[in-house]
Write a structure and sequence with these properties.
Largest sheet: 5 strands, mixed
Radius of gyration: 21 Å
CATH topology: Tachylectin-2, Chain A
Shape: globular
Number of domains: 1
Structural class: mainly beta
Strand content: 35-45%
Length: 439
């Protein structure tokens, strides 16, 4: 990517002002949801065990009786494969205008997701009706044995991938290929449009491989800062496609120094060239906003500017925060920092930090027309809307003045909209002209 940097004197200031940006308003223009209890059948040639999912979500021992354990009002294990956890939108839409959305690894960890099949989808959103519809589901497989480690369904012919193999978090379409950033390696996966893996690329920074504690090559004992340098669940949460064809992968959490401590409150963003199928060596740094611990998605809106979701680890409205000793009728760790930040990759300082341009607050969205479709627990002022989820993981531009945002509902474990009620997959359309025009 070509960057037109500012004069040296200004570049030197960018690092010291890395956390600063203008806060601009956002107005709800549409709200749609797919119910948490939404499932589809696996491929007909998938292993029989995948026709029931979530059997390992109650500890190491499998639960073999379907719908025998409750969580947030839903009974598991589930019949079929859940349509849950949108963890990224591709910048390009399908030919029919549908969104290309990635589904998370299953149930949140490598240990509990071996019966969840990996996939990406085409979905359509009807904001007039308030619905999100699954149009197509493309299952990932490795029949050509290109994955560089033993997978869950190693001995099968189709070799469908599972949430114990990869944790999918970011997606883009480049020509006839799909690229997916994941967290366990972290790896960048290349596949055909029908989901067949054509390449798996380890992450390289300055010529050295970045590994997380879930990397398949690690064995106990493994030392933080040397054997692994990226915290668990810290891999590619954002994968953005620049108009020049470069893929930029943003790590979710800060890297570790040799001491095992965080190298700082910033994230690395690395460039990959699909044409050469190699890391370019280019990178920049993204400074987290105060209170944010991770990012949720990353997508370009023009040649150099991009949107980044920033978040803390909380869920639920702060007005229902648990008092000391309180455990019922409250949110133990309510949402505080849920933001969308505009950055400009043409403005990178001498210290490597990208400029933060403007930001919206997803916990303070105007809703003058009453477009909110779901009840929210908490003291929400009239005419306001909140997006109080622990994981908000998809953002894309939608025309000249709007963006779309979606949550990963972590089925069935997240309950941020209502206490004790499993979150739906929500998609909101926000009117944000000031954000999209900021420079």
């Amino acid at each position: 990517m070509t960057r037109h940097l500012f004069p040296m004197a200004f570049c030197a200031m960018l690092g010291t002002a890395a956390h600063a940006q203008d806060m601009v308003p956002a107005t709800l223009a549409g709200h749609a949801a797919m119910p948490a209890f939404s499932f589809s059948a696996p491929p007909t040639d998938a292993p029989r065990e995948t026709f029931v999912s979530g059997r390992f979500t109650n500890g190491a021992a499998p639960v073999n009786t379907p719908q025998s354990i409750e969580a947030n009002g839903l009974m598991r294990p589930f019949f079929g494969q859940p349509v849950q956890g949108f963890s990224g939108f591709a910048a390009q839409r399908g030919a029919d205008g549908t969104l290309i959305a990635l589904i998370d690894n299953g149930f949140g960890s490598k240990a509990n997701s071996s019966d969840a099949l990996l996939s990406f989808t085409r979905i359509s959103t009807d904001f007039d009706a308030g619905t999100v519809t699954l149009e197509d589901r493309i299952w990932l497989s490795d029949p050509n044995r290109l994955v560089p480690f033993r997978i869950t369904h190693e001995a099968t012919e189709a070799r469908y991938l599972t949430g114990a193999d990869f944790d999918l978090e970011g997606i883009q379409v480049v020509g006839e290929r799909v690229y997916i950033g994941e967290e366990f390696g972290p790896y960048l996966i290349e596949a055909t449009l029908d989901g067949v893996v054509t390449g798996v690329f380890p992450t390289l920074l300055d010529g050295a491989e970045i590994r997380s504690p879930d990397h398949p090559a690690l064995r106990i004992p493994a030392e933080a800062g040397t054997d692994w340098t990226l915290p668990r669940s810290g891999g590619y949460e954002g994968l953005a496609l620049a108009p020049d064809g470069t893929l930029w992968g943003m790590l979710e959490k800060p890297l570790l120094a040799e001491t095992g401590e965080s190298e700082g409150s910033f994230l690395r963003v690395l460039a990959f060239d699909p044409a050469t199928r190699a890391w370019t060596g280019e990178s920049f740094k993204f400074a987290l906003t105060d209170g944010a611990v991770a990012i949720g998605d990353f997508n370009f809106i023009d040649d150099t500017r991009a949107l980044v979701i920033e978040r803390d680890g909380g869920q639920g409205h702060p007005s229902l925060a648990c008092a000391e000793g309180q455990t019922d009728g409250c949110f133990e760790r309510p949402a505080e920092v849920k933001r969308v930040t505009l950055i400009d990759t043409a403005q990178i300082g001498d210290d490597g930090f990208v400029r933060r341009v403007a930001q919206i607050d997803l916990m303070d969205i105007a809703d003058p027309d009453g477009l909110s479709r779901l009840p929210t627990d908490g003291d929400i002022p009239d005419g306001r809307f909140v997006f109080p989820f622990v994981t908000i993981e998809s953002v894309i531009r939608d025309g000249d003045e709007h963006i779309l945002i979606s949550n990963d509902n972590n089925l069935p474990f997240s309950a941020g909209r209502q206490l004790g009620v499993a979150d739906s997959n929500e998609i909101i359309r926000l009117h944000v002209p000031e954000l999209l025009s900021a420079e």
